[in-house]
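Q&A log
Question type: sequence-to-structure
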Amino acid sequence: MEVLSTNHAHGGTQGVYSHQSATTGTDMTFSVFVPDHAPGAKLPVLWFLSGLTCTHANVTEKGEFRAACAAHGIIFVAPDTSPRGDDVADDGDYDFGKGAGFYVDATQAPWAKHFRMRSYIEQELPALIGAEFPADLARQGITGHSMGGHGALTIGLRNPGTFRSVSAFAPIVSPLNCPWGERALTGYLGADQAAWREYDACALIEDGARLPALLVDQGEADNFLHEQLKTGLLVMACRKAGIPATIRMQPGYDHSYYFISSFLAEHVAWHAARLNG
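Response status: OK
Response body:
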């Protein structure tokens, strides 16, 4: 692991790091905020998965999470959204390829060689975080925005024994039923939609996956709400499955980091109540 930068902020250390990933076959960059803590202490971890076109830097620079993480003693990890490099396949569009990994393990050429973000987030990067930082991997939560909200929901639903708490901001709740999802899952996984279900939060819930609780914030002024995000499908899925879900429609808020930064501290506190309890 290479240290790219460290800065002291809000009673903690904000770092940016890189490493050679065996999972993606590329260099991967991520950021970690570690609150000041007693020697030998192990702290819970909150993962933030970012959306289309983003890197680790978007939430790191705009998220306004550090004060809350320091107050609650939470390590905050922000990975990249896809593999990158000159030999990594791309098609030049913002919603597919580099910057748009969709947190899947691709099975279709040429994407399968590098686009293995599911395994990277579920296995490789947590192992690195546990080895290099004072992280208690028995206490992990996960959240994310848009495509990253999709990632947080699906990873949390598939790994209930790993993640004690799951939340999301403006998530793509059903890639099976929106243009972004149809494009990405067809390209990465092929045309058989049966293979898509493990990457669709509503389908996972329909197929029996459960969460003890869920927090979602969605802006009512989000221009992607009706065509791409379709929050109502998640409301119905949780209601039918009996999942205690707090899904808040926030008047006036759009899809941007102005929205995320307005509520991210509340999400940190919500996770902390479940990770520190």
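Response note: The radius of gyration is 17 Å.
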